[in-house]
Amino acid sequence: MEWKFLPEDKSGPARKSRDYRLFNERVIKSAQLLEKSLSEYIVREDEDLNTNKLLKETREIIALSDDPVHTFRMLRRVRRYDDLTYIHSLNVAILCHEFANWMHMPEEEQDILTLAGLLHDVGKMGIPGKIIKKAGLLTDEEYELIKQHPQKGYDFLKKHPLDERIMNAALMHHERCDGSGYPQGLKADEIDDFAKIVAIADYYDALTSARVYREPHCPFEVFRMLQQERDKFDSTYLAVFMEGVASFYIGCEVVLSNQKRARMVDTNPTDQSNPIVKMDGLIVNLAMAPDVDVKEIC
Ligand SMILES: [Fe+2]
């Protein structure tokens, strides 16, 4: 199996390089385990998916660092060259795990939500690899095939004794509260709560990750996109998610659209895309500076 790493970030302290190597080894091992488990699980219908083993792997990745920002930065630099599905699934699982903490969910629900994130795209294993890995624009026919992955995922998972919310997250994570999603065009009250949470984590991770055809978007830019598309997402979950993720970045240096550097000092609970920063010795609420946005987190 061919795996490829992005170059190490040379700007960080040496300690981070050692962390990065250990992290790489661990994430690759987990992604391979996920891929192997799912392949065997789908081919051999008589065997149950070892969810405890998958959960343990995810928890151990989170425990590798006590700083979630560090975890996410390192995770984003580990990429299998021709297939992003497994790393994306791990990212979504970790975001779901954190989300359950922010919502003070009991441990059992946290595990179910983490597994829902880990398994949400399992249906992509039923779509031809050359379409999943295609770097350019998809044809209409190819897009129609991709749109079958939620139903395929549900069909894979329902053969086994898993919590219904895990199966529903696979089936409904591309549904949108305003009815504009697929495969069924469900409306808010018809969509499983866990699928609504996975949908937000899935959208966020896809846009903050690099693609062959574009650079990754800055998290605060993705918050703006999420705010613009707020009718598509559950408003309570969206607010909790953005506040939680934004809080990862308190204390980080940021580059603003006016090319100045600033330090994020707090989130802005009424507008998470515009945090409170310290710039030129002054505390500035970026919501009050409409021409200035966060462009990059250093
Ligand atoms: Fe998906």
UniProtKB/TrEMBL annotation:
Q: Name one Pfam family in it.
A: HD_5
Family matches, as InterPro entries: HD/PDEase_dom, HD_domain, HD_GYP_dom, HDIG_dom
PROSITE patterns referenced in this protein's UniProt entry, alphabetically: HD, HD_GYP
Q: Which SMART domains match?
A: HDc
Domain annotation HD: ranges: 85-207
Domain HD-GYP residue range list: 63-257
NCBIfam families from the xrefs? HDIG
Listed name of the protein = HD-GYP domain-containing protein
Q: What species is given as this protein's source?
A: Jutongia huaianensis
